[in-house]
Design goal:
161 residues; 3 helices
């Protein structure tokens, strides 16, 4: 079980904590909107090479590879040029632990959602933090142990579920 130790999900070298250049071409689709409370994004932390091959063949995903300033990549999965998910390396701090999917729920304000989640019995695994120019996120464990992230957007990601 992941504890509340900062950095277990997204350590300092994780793409979220590094500088990516976010542009309409690599991380934005202005036509998508997600009302608060709806799922809006998903990341897979794993071996990107194996996962890209598997999901590419299974789901027809192509990839837009976005380099980070620490030598890793953030692999945006696309279908017909629309971004649907991302695959990134499993953080070194999680070596030996299983890969994981992390789902994001759209909220009006990530800080307020994180505070309310704790008030309702959730555990804050990562304090809210800025994700480049895209918005602000926080990672939370609900009272049953399930992990999710809240995303207070400044730009809108592309999956249309």
């Amino acid at each position: 079980m992941i504890g509340a130790t900062p950095g277990l999900l997204f350590p300092p070298q994780h793409p979220y904590n590094t500088q990516l250049t976010t542009t309409k071409d690599n991380f934005y689709d202005g036509d998508s909107e997600y009302p608060a409370g709806t799922f809006c994004w998903i990341d897979l932390a794993t071996d990107p090479g194996a996962a890209k091959s598997f999901y590419g063949e299974l789901l027809g995903w192509d990839y837009l590879v976005v380099p980070t300033d620490v030598g890793t990549t953030y692999n945006l999965a696309t279908i017909e040029a629309r971004q649907v998910a991302a695959i990134c390396p499993l953080p070194e701090e999680r070596a030996g632990r299983p890969p994981y999917w992390l789902s994001y729920v759209s909220v009006a304000n990530a800080d307020e959602a994180a505070t309310k989640a704790v008030d309702l019995g959730g555990t804050l695994l990562m304090e809210p933090f800025d994700v480049m120019t895209a918005g602000r996120i926080s990672v939370i464990q609900d009272p049953t142990g399930a992990l999710f992230s809240v995303w207070g957007r400044r730009i809108t990601l592309a999956p249309r579920w």
